[in-house]
Amino acid sequence: MGMTPAARLARLTDGYVVTQLLWVAAELRIADALADGPRTAEELATQVGADAGVLRRVLRGLAAEEVLEDLPDGRFALTATGRLLRDGVEGSQRGAVLARGGLYYGALAGLLDAVRDGGVPFERVHGRTFFDHLDAHPAESARFQGSMAVRAAREAAAVVEAYDFRRFRTLVDVGGGTGVLLAAILRAAPGVSAVLFDRPEVVRDAQVPHVGGDFFAEVPAGAEAYVLSRVIHDWSDADAVAILRTVRRAIPDTGTLLLVEAVLPARAADDPAAVRMDVHILTLLGGQERTAAEFAVLLDAAGFRLDRVLPTGPGSGVHVLVARTAPDRDDRSA
Ligand SMILES: C[S@@+](CC[C@H](N)C(=O)[O-])C[C@H]1O[C@@H](n2cnc3c(N)ncnc32)[C@H](O)[C@@H]1O
User: Fold this and answer.
1) Disulfide engineering: 48 pairs with which of 28, 172, 284, 315, CB 3.0-4.6 Å?
2) Which of 231, 244, 312, 320 to probe ligand 1 with, by most ligand atoms within 8 A of CB?
């Protein structure tokens, strides 16, 4: 039987509690502590260093959401959902939970003010931009990059499955983070000569060839393909066009631009995960997820033409948008 509207609304309203229950479990590595079998709250409290009485209430809260199972003998066991809170397992979401329950959660306190008066919720709360905040907090930055890396690994597998990179000899991954997508591309297309480009402090320790810099200023020139994965959605239309123009200056006229992004559906309920990601981006960066038509407009403004929009595997959350260079605007109007 479906929930009544009242029960559904009450549950949605308490979503803030669930986020924190999951965050506490992820911080304390509760799922890893349960990997070898069910434990009592007391056993877990000793193992992870917690107050048994408070921990029991948190564990019960997680059991109410079927993240854990409360067994008749008083022990708690992992469910298939709870297993995904473990570190390093296939499909682990621990990094995403750590980011959401910590850094993102605090930023949402600025949402109402931003809705009323504009601006970015994160900046209203912290007084500086998300990336400036990360620069000043290396531990949080490492944690954010870790969360991005897990998501990127899942997406990367789907992207190289959906798009054949063996057609290129040279490629630059712009804003490529720690190089997860690029590593997957190089595994799928070992003949490609590729460069990872991101902020200097991000690429410093990358295991692939890399260049540090600012994509508003300049990116490595002359490659056959430029990939921007989950970059454009961080930015306003004006900033996105500025980044794409930097790429346009670097790319040969025969080049291919590949955007890896969520594509917003026409109706929100058709892809709730993409719509939720749009709210995350709004909260942290003031950027936005976009529909295919909106991407086409940005690309056009930067001297590209959107050619194809390829879905990737089910549940991956991203599409590959394939664009080509368009004749220079001045040439066209001449
Ligand atoms: C949302 S992450 C996406 C990372 C990766 N491409 C992925 O798909 O997981 C955006 C990336 O843009 C990088 N970035 C932000 N500002 C930048 C700038 N001005 N120049 C170069 N990279 C920048 C960040 O360091 C970050 O790695």
Assistant:
1) 28
2) 231
Q: Average model confidence (pLDDT) for the chain?
A: 93
Residue nearest to atom 13 of ligand 1 (CA): 175
In tens, the pLDDT along 145-186 reads: 888 878 888 899 999 999 999 999 999 999 998 899 999 999
70 Cα–ligand 1 center, Å? 42
Written as one string, the DSSP assignment of 155-213 is: HHHHHHHHS-GGG-SEEEEET-TTSHHHHHHHHH-TT-EEEEEE-HHHHTT-SS-EEE-
| Domains assigned to the chain | 5-92 (1.10.10.10), 148-333 (3.40.50.150)
The upper half-sphere exposure of residue 157, i.e. CA atoms within 13 Å in the direction of its Cβ, equals 11
The share of the chain scoring above pLDDT 70, in percent, equals: 98
Mean pLDDT for 49-56 is 98
Pairing of strands 319-325, 256-261: antiparallel
How far from the centroid of its chain's Cα atoms is residue 121's Cα? 18
Report the nearest-CA residue for atom 27 of ligand 1.
177
Integer Cα distance of 322 and 295 in angstroms:
11
